[in-house]
Amino acid sequence: MKKKTLVLVGGGHSHIYLLKEFGLNPNSLLNIILVSEYKYQFYSGMSAAYLEGIYSKDEIRFDIEKICKVSKIKFIKNKVVEINANEKYIMLSDDKKIEFDIISVNTGSIMYGLDIKGVRDYASVIKPLENLESLREKFISGIDKRKNILVAGGGAAGFEIALSLKALSKKLNKVVEVTILDSNSEILSKSNKKIKKISKKLIRENKINFLANKKIKEVFKDCILTNEEEKIPYEYLLWALGSSSSNLYKKSNLKTDIKGFLQVNIFLQSNEYPFLFGAGDCISIDKYKNLKKVGVYAIKESKILYNNILKYLDGKELEEFVPKKEFLSIIYSANKTGILNYKNITFNGKIAFLIKNYIDVNFMKKYK
Ligand SMILES: Cc1cc2nc3c(=O)[nH]c(=O)nc-3n(C[C@H](O)[C@H](O)[C@H](O)COP(=O)(O)OP(=O)(O)OC[C@H]3O[C@@H](n4cnc5c(N)ncnc54)[C@H](O)[C@@H]3O)c2cc1C
């Protein structure tokens, strides 16, 4: 029987699982190719603690090229710029074409607001997480001259980063002013009341300012301009707004949700093109439109994605992905502490970090 080509686009949290499983259970009918923009894949859950200096770079990233080699999967370091589902090929940034029989996408999300004038020129954007090392270096090397730190975005990422940078400056015996700015009226606006209460207390205790209801209109070299024409100065601007979609799916004329995330069904499969699968931040499941863009779902989806690709190949009935309504979430709150939330339990402290560290380190170990 002729081999089929399975192309995996992006080496995100879901595809990492596939790489490992296909390595452990080689499929003689499949020729597998992974295309990723980067050789390494960073684990976001550990990124704020990395900025603070708790973890090293190698502790928070996988070497996907190496994992592919071990799993006998072809690795191509490149960016996919188009998916032609009608003719079944992808285009790479250097105009190379790769044909496929089955394709799976796990390309994550980009930071919201990158199209705001000046952002790409002046802001240090958290994503892609490959930027983390240079962000950390810039913060440390400029700490004596850049003392006014502005974090755009008061969601989990911005909150974690603001606290971690404040903790790092203390460790370096330096004093910096950290401000979080958000278009919402509260920090962690999407979280429950208990988390909000704890987070407000933490930013107060750490003398972090919070500027509410500020929508950024433009970014200049030394200040941002809000929709109300207010100028807010900064010396170092970190961009940590929420998730947005890249233009890959719209540009490829694939069905997307209103935000540009690839539309899939409960089997993580495109309705129009049944050979197209996806998982993680880059998809929007028609039955669960408002699913949070969190790594937890990308990881939970990975097993279904793997099973469904194999079932599709065998012409078997596919498995349904059912997201859990409640899952354990631990937001890193610097100094080896965290805010844990599970069902009705919410608390802050070292125990939360110990649990988070255990989960994260074990996740990393699985793929090292
Ligand atoms: C600072 C921060 C902290 C976070 N902390 C947590 C947390 O504690 N817990 C949690 O659950 N979630 C957390 N999140 C959210 C989490 O990062 C995302 O939900 C998760 O990364 C999504 O995983 P993914 O597999 O969909 O994509 P990603 O992990 O983003 O991986 C996508 C990969 O695809 C590659 N790629 C993208 N486009 C292309 C292309 N065109 N061609 C080739 N390759 C491409 C990218 O370079 C990337 O390597 C955090 C996010 C941030 C920014």
UniProtKB/TrEMBL annotation:
SUPFAM superfamilies: FAD/NAD(P)-binding domain. Residues 6-285 form the FAD/NAD(P)-binding domain. InterPro entries: FAD/NAD-bd_sf, FAD/NAD-binding_dom, NADH-Q_oxidoreductase. One of its GO terms (biological process) is aerobic electron transport chain. Keywords: FAD, Flavoprotein, Oxidoreductase. It comes from the Bacteria. The keyword Flavoprotein applies. Its cofactor is FAD. The keyword Flavoprotein applies. One of its GO terms (molecular function) is NAD(P)H dehydrogenase (quinone) activity. Belongs to the NADH dehydrogenase family. This is FAD-dependent oxidoreductase. It comes from Helicovermis profundi. The lineage of its organism: Bacteria, Bacillati, Bacillota, Clostridia, Helicovermis.
